[in-house]
Amino acid sequence: MASSLALVALLLVSCAVVAAAATKYTVGDTSGWAMGADYTTWASDKKFKMGDTLVFNYAGGAHSVDEVSAADYAVCTASNALQSDSSGTTTVTLKTAGKHYFICGIAGHCSNGMKLVVDVAAASPAPAPKAPSTTPTTPSTTPATPASPGTSSGLTPTTPATVLAPPAKQSAGAAGLRAGSWTMLGLAGLAAVQLGLF
To answer: Which residues, if any, are the signal sequence (predicted)?
Structure first.
């Protein structure tokens, strides 16, 4: 039973991990990282989250990818860049939530549209798998008592008592039973004694 529960929990966690897998975005899609592209529109319908990656494709040496502060983004300066690359293919993993600002550091390129802002959502924790209930269920076994003389209904169910005690009247076969034996017999034994089967 424990191994089955562990297997179910593992499957649920695996599904959650797959659902929360990082997304790889190619900046500008087929246009790549180039002058004349509209990166505001490109980013507007995307839901960036922590762990996603941005891939900037461009002609190496002709452009750069510089992550900058909001203030440097506003004035198109890469002089205090947080990170910079001009290799031609730059991959940036979005590791923190909040806005990330990217520009091309080549003079005049940022002011001609080579600038991108991505708003990264905090990673939502994977939902914890719910463990199946381990509370044992007790079957409803209501002892029956014989019907009163003159009735034709046979057996009449009675409400189960909170504390089980031996019946006041015992049949001859059950007279020697002690209180501890009643516990071992359980409700089925009690019903059998009540019905006079012993």
So the answer is: 1-21
CA 136 to the chain's CA centroid = 26
Query: Which residue type is seen at 114?
Result: M
How far apart (Å, rounded) are the C-alpha atoms in residues 68 and 52? 18
Query: Which CATH number does the domain housing residue 87 bear?
Result: 2.60.40.420
Ramachandran region, residue 89 (left: φ > 0; alpha: ψ -120 to 50; beta: rest):
beta
Query: What's the structural domain count of the chain?
Result: 1
* pLDDT 10s digits, 102-126: 999 999 999 999 999 999 998 766 5
For residue 98, being part of any structural domain is answered with yes
